[in-house]
Design brief:
By secondary structure, the protein is an all-alpha fold. It contains four helices and no strands.
């Protein structure tokens, strides 16, 4: 099985688990509203798409040279972090509900998808 297929399956499973957790918290407790649950669900799906695109890009860079791998990896992580900051700044500027909770959950989701990306890339790089 190819690395991209394995990573896609892992991302899909992680997305499903995170979306189920967000839905469960919304439905069975009164901790988050429907709007916040939708925002967090969009964050999960967005990070999954970004992680998959980064994975493909970084693997292509790795095939060319180790220097390009490092550049692609650090650049990809920096772009993802900058996009997160922009999203949270806009969310807080618009004075949407529960901005601190959304920021903390977004940070946790960011960490989860970075761990998945790094662990998958380490498997590929260590094979060489």
């Amino acid at each position: 099985m190819s690395t991209n297929t394995q990573f896609a399956k892992t991302l899909f499973l992680t997305c499903v688990l995170l979306l189920l957790a967000i839905s469960g918290i919304h439905m069975f407790t009164a901790k988050i509203s429907f709007n916040v649950a939708c925002v967090l669900s969009a964050v999960v799906v967005g990070y999954a798409l970004i992680a998959y695109l980064l994975h493909i890009n970084i693997l292509k860079s790795n095939a060319k040279s180790p220097t390009r791998f490092v550049t692609a990896f650090t650049g990809g992580i920096a772009v993802k972090l900058f996009a997160s900051v922009i999203f949270l700044a806009v969310y807080m500027y618009l004075k949407c509900e529960k901005p601190v909770m959304v920021a903390l959950v977004t940070f946790c989701i960011y960490i989860v998808f970075n761990i998945l990306l790094i662990s998958s890339l380490l498997k590929v790089v260590s094979k060489k």
